[in-house]
């Protein structure tokens, strides 16, 4: 984003700008031949040996020396026999809490993308120097992911989500009153860009930690679809003719609504990812809203998963050799786990 301002200033034609902008994407696509396959996907396809090879390489890079192929393949084969089949997102509608949380996440994602789109596409503060304006607003986005990670890691997911929406709402409410000074307005827009980009990061984190394993990737994909679909409406809202300040007041209402809806999401810091739909439904139990759960007290609020006892029993199977595991049927393994 920052380099785009410099490149557009140097190149006199938009055709050259479009051509140069395609070069990084082409180089990134070439990385496809060097990128290893997803271990989770290999496991879902039953390709145990290839999955173990990649995980062993990860262990080697991380300096883990007590990982052995035989033991790892035994554990992977157990997981492969017990994993739930990939199901549709509609399966989540059978669980009331998970259904509500999914709708909230999709709405929050849509509002975050809408805020980003309005700031990115529709606001030119320095009309005399569009390139400088674009550069300042773009460079303000750089620390957003680092700031989002730091806040979610130490302050908790729910607190970071609600507080970031409230901070963005305050900045949006103040923006219409800063039009008299272009540099103040530019700083205000830069901070809005920073926090709305952080919002996208935080919502992504919550999405991956709230949806259960069978629909985690599907839920994240639909979150992105909702966000990009809402972002399409940005030009229509900016040129609605209702008023120059209408986009700001609309964003203010949406940010405040999202902050309120964030109270219905569970605090997931320190919790294992939900593996089943029932785990996702029970997620956050024993973590009331009135208690601020963060990095320094999360150990006091770690409920046991409904599947924990079963997985502890299944750990006993890890002593079995891979060849013997392959001779066992899924029903036999299930009986051993009960």
Number of helices: 17
Shape: globular
CATH superfamily of the domain at 91-281: MFS general substrate transporter like domains
- Unreliable spans are 333-338
Helix- and strand-based class?
A: mainly alpha
Count of distinct strands: 0
Alpha-carbon distance between the termini? 55 Å
Name the CATH class of the domain at 91-281: Mainly Alpha
Order of helices and strands: HHHHHHHHHHHHHHHHH
Helix content: 55-70%
**Strand content of the residues, in percent?**
under 5%
Q: Any idea what the radius of gyration is?
A: 24 Å
| Overall pLDDT level | 82
| CATH architecture verdict of the domain at 91-281 | Up-down Bundle
The biggest sheet, with number of strands, parallel, antiparallel or mixed sense and barrel status, is:
none
Examine the coordinates and then state which fold CATH places here, giving the name of the CATH topology of the domain at 91-281. Growth Hormone, Chain: A
Report on the structure:
The protein is mainly α. It contains 17 helices and no strands. The chain has helices at 2-10, 14-30, 39-44, 48-61, 69-82, 96-122, 130-139, 144-155, 157-174, 182-210, 216-231, 234-238, 246-261, 277-281, 308-314, 322-327, 330-337. α8 crosses α10 (182-210) and α9 (157-174) runs antiparallel to α10. The protein is globular, with a radius of gyration of 24 Å.
What are its keywords?
338 residues; mainly alpha; Growth Hormone, Chain: A; globular
Strands, helices and their partners?
Layout: H1 2-10, H2 14-30, H3 39-44, H4 48-61, H5 69-82, H6 96-122, H7 130-139, H8 144-155, H9 157-174, H10 182-210, H11 216-231, H12 234-238, H13 246-261, H14 277-281, H15 308-314, H16 322-327, H17 330-337
